[in-house]
Amino acid sequence: MCKGGGANLRSLFHATMLKTKLAALLLFCSFVCGAVASDETVTRQKLVQAILSSGDEQQKLLSELADDNSKIVHDTLLSWTRDEIYLCETANGGAKIPVLLEEQQDAEGKARAIRIDDGKYLADEKGAELHFDSSDLNTLDTDMRLRSAVQQTLDLLALADPNRDARRDVVQKLGKSQKKQYLPVLQARLGKETDAGVKKAIFVAVATINLGDADPSAKIAAINQLAKLNSIGSLDDLQRAANSQNADVAKSAEAAIKSINGYLSAVNFFGTIFRGISLGSILLVVALGLAITFGLMGIINMAHGEMIAIGAYTCYFVESVFGTGFTFRIVMPFSIGGHAPGFGATIPGLHASGWFYETYFLFAIPLSFVMAALAGLALERTVIQFLYRRPLESLLATWGVSLILQQCFRLVFGANNVQVNSPRWLLGNFTLNDVILGYNRLFVIAFAVLIVIGTWLLLTKTPLGLLIRAVMQNRNMAACMGVRTARVNMLTFAFGSGLAGLAGAFLSQIGNVGPSLGQSYIVDSFMTVVVGGVGNIVGCIYSALGIGTADQVLQQVFGSPVVGKITVLICIILFLQWKPSGLFAARSRSLEG
Amino acid sequence: MKRKTELLAVAIVAILVIVILPLLNASGIVSNFTINLYGKYLSYAVLAISVDLLWGYTGLLSLGQCLFFTLGGYMMGMYLMRMIGNLGQYHMAIPDFLVFLGWNTLPTFWKPFASFPFALMMVVLLPGLLALVFGFLAFRSRIRGVYFSILTQALTYGACLLFFRNNLLMGGNNGFTDFKLLLQQDLRLPATQRMLYISTGILLLLTYCFCRWLTKTKFGKVQRAIRDSENRVLFSGYAAANFKLFVFVASAIIAALGGALYTPQVGIINPSEMATDKSLEAVVWVAVGGRGTLVGPIVGAIFVNTLKSWATRAYPDYWLIILGGMFLLVVLFLPKGIVGLISDCGGWIAEKFKTTPVVPDLKQTPDADSLPNPQPAIRNP
Fold it and tell me: Theoretical Cys-Cys bridge with A302: which of A398, A408, A492, B71, CB 3.0 to 4.6 Å?
């Protein structure tokens, strides 16, 4: 007799809406999966058999289930290990029906039961669905042996997971357990496995299991195997082996640790170089903009960092618009008639999802260039054009602008950092000989290369580039030849600022975006320009990559980012003693300054 | 005639600030808070003069003056930390933050700071030496103009990062605070604060007199010549680098002395004081007050800081916009600052009433040599 089987009318009524929806869904599913339906029935029958049987037969049935890589098996077994499978004894005949309780509960904390044999809701004779409280039902009895059998089946299922990262995790877990019983499973999988990374993981796992062997010679073989595989993850296990009583084992383990440590430092080194190059690429894009404006106009733009922030916030804005929308409100600091005036705007979100949402970054990149370029244009027209002959004052005025912009960011976007969700295609990474290469950093490097080529083409192959170079070399002469220098200045400044905006777009993918984002890059990028030689793009490339890499390498060497940074600064100051006008100084017969 | 009026004006203001105001405070008319606040402003004014000596008179825009100011403050802070003795939270003979970092004994370099003369010597020596080394390297390789500004900014940035580290054993993020005694006097007593205020006033007066004297000598002439056209100075046979080095070191020491008096009055010194922003803020004071004059920086420091005290309370969200906007306006429209504006108005009135013929003042042309042709470079492609 089912306890609590009297399904009350209220909950029945309550569930009607959901039921119709579910019915439609089930209909749809059965329609689409018509071909697989028969397979599914067989699987479900097998599951029920496995649940209801006992002893050796149960073990056998469970191991058969391991060959069936379907979601139902996985989910049901998982619920089994969590004691979420219940047995319902029907009134007529006393047959036991294994069920799962639905997660959604009604007002009384009761839930409908899903039959494992056909996936439908358990109903009474009249077809009314029954609702149960979990305490009303008998939990399926399990013991240690059964649990481990179920768990093993789950592991085997996971070994056949279509996702290679999931497969690798399982392999590593099995290896770490050091249980001999997994050896045949792993060997079997090795035959079917196609992915090289997972294969290596299986080799490591097998060796790790063998490391737990009592026989010293097997141990030593396993240790040598691990050393050959350069398995960084096995260092702890090897350390344990090195402490063992057996002198031979300890000796070979120590040798293995040494060899793996050597490999590890090589991996770290290349990882550092990679991060250094990606940092250098961002620095390059930032400094390229500075090099152009500084080289052309002799203007030090302290607000260049805020152009980076504009680019980054544009990214955030575009992401918000693709997502849930964007709202801001600014309240004026004074009140008129007891009412503080303010303004604000709400941009409704597109609530995009899937691939459409992932493309937001493709829209954000050009937009961040345009926004930063427009801001640069406005800055040039309103402030900088009056200060061309006073470089020191331009530094100070643009610092004023930078303060104003920073505060505006705080007012519009809030004082806290905001997070920009990266599109999924930038999130992952791939591992090359244990060196982790993030897609976002690779993307930054590739894009920096594109930008450098683009800038070079613009400067050397276009009419605008010709004018820019002419003004750069001799402003007065260019003006005499009819070049509208004011216009060239304006466009160049906008272009330089736009490059900063692009850098901001990349930075938003690597870290959080805050109002003072630009400040942390501005000192570095000025250094880059000065070291590279003002107005020289090749010098800028060398110095950006050099400073970026030196920064990362020294961070590793000193084990502290701050000491690394300070050392870089000191090196730069000393470098300028040797080459005061940078790596590639513009040769000139005139007096400087 | 003009000189005499100036002397008279300075004497009157000095007596007002150094004698009358403390007397009023002692008799209870001026509050302790006000005295403390003005003491802070006066030490800022010392810093502003040091910026002006470099920027206004020598054409070197240093963005590192706050570093020297804070270093001076730190040296004084070390003495004050030693004077806490075992009155700290942990009742140990060493400063609290060292206890917190797991030290039981005093690190060696902390030991001599129990002596006030030694601390005072370090206030002068450390910033002076740093300025000497950095200035020697920078001026030797003829780093000038904006390059000098960028390099000093980088130096300050690096030092700021360094002082944020706990491993430096200089208090890390929190710096030094919770001072108790200065020369056996309780720092919290109004009388001590009053004495500190008077000392700061005297320091400011001395700094003013020193700079006044320096800029009137032949040395001062060379200084301004470097500002207006360094190449001509070089061609005339002067070793411009030595002149610049002297001014750089002198202004670093002046700033450090200001910082040393700032710390006991404010009661805290931490690395955020040497952030690059602060140096730029000090430049704002000079620009607003009027660069190339000695009264300008003092007026600017007091004016901008009074404004800041008010605005950060009244409009906390808009203070940075006010500061940035003010700076923008001053650079664009008031290159001579408040003092220049007043003297211009004076000149205008004088012309209007035709009492005396207007003598054209020495024009502040910072980059006279770059005026006719800013980029004369003929560069090889």
Answer: A398
